[in-house]
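Convert to structure. Protein one:
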Amino acid sequence: MKRKARTPAQNTGENNASLPKYTIGVVSQMLGLPPQMLRRYEEAGLLEPARQSGKNRLYSDADVAILEEIAALYEQGVNAVGIRHIIQMRKQVVVLQQEVNEVRQTLYRYQEEYHFEVTLQKKDT
């Protein structure tokens, strides 16, 4: 029986980054953290890695990036509750930035379509 030819998956960088592929041992070596620390981060609800057959943890590139951030905050003396809030706020900032970009794109389309100009004031940071 002949195998059906597979078409290559159309993965974006974001989808690829969320693909679970590293075991806890590999991530431990990558970050220089003991596996028990990674388990503690999970127990504290800071991260939820995928599970292979419901047993072994598998971490994605996105998980590793979050773990790097968690480890850096932990080294600065931030506790688990603080880390959780910081991570949630950063995720919310990304969502809000995406929404602002979408609104700007819509505004620009209307400007081009209806030939009018709107001046956006940027707040100094």
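Protein two, convert as well:
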Amino acid sequence: MKKLEKKLSELKGILGLAHKAGALIIGSDNLKGYEKKLYLLLIDNTAGKSLMREMEFLAKKRAVELLKLDSLNEILSIENCKVVGIKNKGFSDTIREKIETKTEK
């Protein structure tokens, strides 16, 4: 259990740094309007079916991986946040690595 908490803490730290660095696109409307390269999409498991469909379509259209997370809004400390795009390759690689090791254990 402590390993999972540590991984969540690390993920929260990385996403916090990415947010401060301006490497996050927060919200579906902002993502739809963002024309530059995206490296990763994160969506909350509690997102509605409509939003899930829209983001799956966007991920396919932009050839970006879409990962589902529990309580994304709590990890980011942003109320009612359901979807986030990562526009920095370094952050996206690190986040992907943390999420994959979190689900393996």
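The two ends are 10 Å apart (CA to CA). The chain has a mean pLDDT of 89.
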